[in-house]
């Protein structure tokens, strides 16, 4: 039996979640035969009828105002439930920061995507801290004993314009880079991928580090309010995610530039000054010697022939990073994949 509340859970997971509803039963079977289990606000487990061949965690809304991928993921749930989207993977769908989604805000107290891997313990009074704990536990429960390979695709939209409109970020765990991930990024027609060199506190860092997931954060273009997104711009990522959960091989082999983080710009105090336009596009290049920031005695100067700036944001709280600096490592990285 499927009650009307349960069908709206599957037909419009976004609206169901924003309304703060709970399903009448905790689990059931969709029209497609897929078994669903509601695991709490914005967290939905989907299991295929046959033995799963792999595991995919797909998340969006870790930043509450990044609406397009949230709508995309909600539409994907409806298509899995109806059978329009085939599912051979065991799948966990997560809408991340539900309170911020309701408020139309990136976050309420603190950036949820800086609170993973235990950093929430230092933000006990933050309204995002309990959600970080819930999502960590949901991810660990999902990946514990799950079918390999384990994937985590965390979808975002950038605040600003970008030289590469759609790009990915891979967390650093010390594990070798996986060719399968690069093949998937090409399938999704991502134009660039950024490789972190240090451990972070993002959701994908957590799942890569703690569960061994092939994890990537996708930045899929600029933010608009719910209902005003042109989802066609996200069609390539949507199609690649659908192929991934269906167990289909990659279809696209789009060119992919690779950049590696070489430095970060730190905000130490409220004296911080960023010497670039506030709307400078991500991946804007600067040549050696350029002074990009100052803060008291601290200076950031470009030390490589060319460095590109990513996520410049002078408005972050002191103690946080105000920008990442990357260099092109396309040839060396692609040659290193086994
Ligand atoms: Zn984001």
From TrEMBL:
Cytoplasm recorded as keyword: no
Span of domain Succinylglutamate desuccinylase/Aspartoacylase catalytic: 53-245
Regions that span the bilayer: none
InterPro entries: AspA/AstE_fam, AstE_AspA_cat, Aste_AspA_hybrid_dom, SuccinylGlu_desuccinylase
One GO process term, biological-process aspect: L-arginine catabolic process to L-glutamate
Coiled coil: none
Family: Belongs to the AspA/AstE family. Succinylglutamate desuccinylase subfamily.
Listed pathway(s): Amino-acid degradation; L-arginine degradation via AST pathway; L-glutamate and succinate from L-arginine: step 5/5
Cofactor note: Binds 1 zinc ion per subunit.
Co-factor requirement: Zn(2+)
Naturally occurring in which organism (per UniProt): Caballeronia calidae
Superkingdom classification of source: Bacteria
Record's protein name: Succinylglutamate desuccinylase
Function: Transforms N(2)-succinylglutamate into succinate and glutamate.
Catalyzed chemical reaction(s): N-succinyl-L-glutamate + H2O = L-glutamate + succinate
Enzyme Commission number: 3.5.1.96
Binding, Zn(2+): 63, 66, 156
Organism phylogeny: Bacteria, Pseudomonadati, Pseudomonadota, Betaproteobacteria, Burkholderiales
Record NCBIfam families: arg_catab_astE, PRK05324.1
Top EC category: hydrolase
């Amino acid at each position: 039996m499927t009650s009307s509340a349960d069908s709206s859970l599957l037909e419009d997971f976004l609206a169901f979640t924003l309304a703060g509803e709970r399903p009448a039963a905790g689990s059931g079977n969709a029209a497609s035969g897929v078994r669903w289990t509601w695991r709490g606000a914005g967290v939905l487990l989907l299991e295929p009828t046959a033995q799963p061949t792999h595991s995919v965690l797909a998340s969006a809304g870790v930043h509450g105002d990044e609406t397009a991928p949230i709508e995309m993921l909600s539409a994907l749930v409806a298509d899995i439930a109806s059978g329009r989207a085939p599912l051979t993977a065991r799948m966990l769908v997560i809408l991340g920061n539900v309170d911020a989604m309701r408020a139309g805000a990136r976050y309420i107290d603190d950036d949820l995507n800086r609170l993973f891997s235990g950093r929430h313990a230092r933000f006990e009074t933050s309204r995002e801290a309990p959600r970080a704990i819930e999502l960590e536990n949901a991810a660990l429960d999902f990946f514990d004993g799950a079918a390999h390979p384990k994937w985590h695709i965390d979808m975002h939209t950038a605040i600003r314009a970008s030289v590469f409109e759609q790009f990915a970020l891979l967390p650093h765990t010390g594990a070798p880079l996986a060719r399968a991930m690069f093949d998937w990024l090409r399938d999704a027609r991502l134009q660039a991928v950024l490789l972190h060199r240090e451990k972070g506190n993002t959701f994908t860092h957590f799942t890569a580090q703690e569960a061994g997931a092939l994890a990537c954060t996708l930045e899929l273009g600029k933010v608009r309010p719910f209902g005003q997104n042109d989802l066609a711009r996200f069609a390539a990522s949507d199609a690649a995610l659908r192929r991934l959960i269906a167990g289909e091989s990659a279809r696209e082999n789009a060119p992919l530039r690779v950049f590696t983080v070489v430095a970060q710009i730190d905000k130490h105090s409220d004296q911080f000054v960023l010497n670039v336009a506030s709307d400078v596009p991500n991946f804007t290049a600067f040549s050696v010697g350029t002074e990009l920031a100052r803060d008291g005695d601290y200076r950031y100067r470009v030390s490589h022939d060319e460095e590109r700036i990513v996520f410049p944001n002078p408005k972050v709280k002191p103690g946080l990073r105000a920008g990442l600096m990357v260099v092109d490592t396309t040839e060396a990285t692609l040659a290193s994949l086994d």
